[in-house]
Amino acid sequence: MREILGRRLQRLRDRLKFPRAVSRPAAEAGAEVAPSILEAALTCAAVRQWPVLPGVGRASADSRRCACPDPDCVVPGAHPFDPGLLAATTDARMVAWWWGRRPTAPVLLATGGAAPCAVSLPAKAAARAVVRLDAQGMRLGPIVATPTRWSLLVAPYSLERLGELLYAKDHVPSSLRFHGEGGYLLLPPSAASGGGQVRWEREPEPRRAGSGELWLPEVEAVVDALVEASSGAPGGGSRLAY
Predict the structure, then answer these.
(1) Which residues have C-beta within 8 Å of that of residue 201, sequence separation ≥ 6?
(2) In whole angstroms, what is the distance from residue 184 CA to residue 3 CA?
(3) CA distance 216 to 196
């Protein structure tokens, strides 16, 4: 899979006429785009056909303050601002232009529609749940990890479908968050909002050998498994709480 993605990415570089990095505009001359972030954005957009856009980022390279106007931003750097979420695209030239101007901008996936969605939970609870689900033989999809939360990518679902799923449950851990239609997810190798870096705990895999189509589990299977993993905790608490 890595070799297939590498070949496709090289073809994109050749077509866009840049080797490993894109020069910044004249106003920011003297530096180059960090190829890891640009290539991650291009791979998601043009190879995987996932719509992406740059996050707002930090006020400066060494700042913890978000570059947006809100001084009390709760997810500093890790949300859309300008461009807005509706600008997310799979167009390689637009992606190259965005990160050519803002080389350290976080990579955001616009979830829903034809793009993957996700279910996220606290990192420690997620690590335990994944071990348990692996032992049960459940096939999980890609997993995006930050120091505080893990996000399990799932096949696209509608808000109506999610609502029906949750309504049918007697209990759903409050620690679960859903990234569906109209939402977004921070992707590797972006800087996490609370510090540290976003990484792939489990990288995307093809649906079948030799196929470029990525495999994603259905949201029902993942939520059912996580709800089961949370049940029976001592004191009636949730195993997914932390």
Answers:
(1) 130, 143, 144, 145, 150
(2) 28
(3) 26
Reading the chain (242 residues) residue by residue, the pLDDT tens digits are 455 555 555 555 556 555 444 443 433 444 444 458 999 999 999 999 999 999 999 887 667 889 999 999 999 999 999 999 999 999 999 999 999 999 999 999 999 999 999 999 999 999 999 998 999 899 999 999 999 999 999 999 999 999 999 999 988 888 999 999 999 999 999 999 888 999 999 999 876 655 567 899 999 999 999 888 776 544 445 667 76
* Token pair belonging to 215: 């495999």
- Rounded CA-CA distance 72/83 in Å is 20
Please state, in angstroms and rounded to a whole number, the distance separating the CA atoms of residues 161 and 129: 24
- Estimate to the nearest angstrom the gap between the alpha carbon of 227 and the chain centroid: 22
How many residues belong to the chain?
A: 242
Nearest-angstrom CA–CA distance, 142 and 151: 8
How would you class 104 by CB atoms within 10 Å of its CB: exposed for 0-12, middle for 13-18, buried for 19 or more? middle
Residue 240, number of CB atoms within 10 A of its CB:
23
- The residue written with tokens 């077509």 in the block is 15
Strands 149-154 and 117-122 turn out to be antiparallel
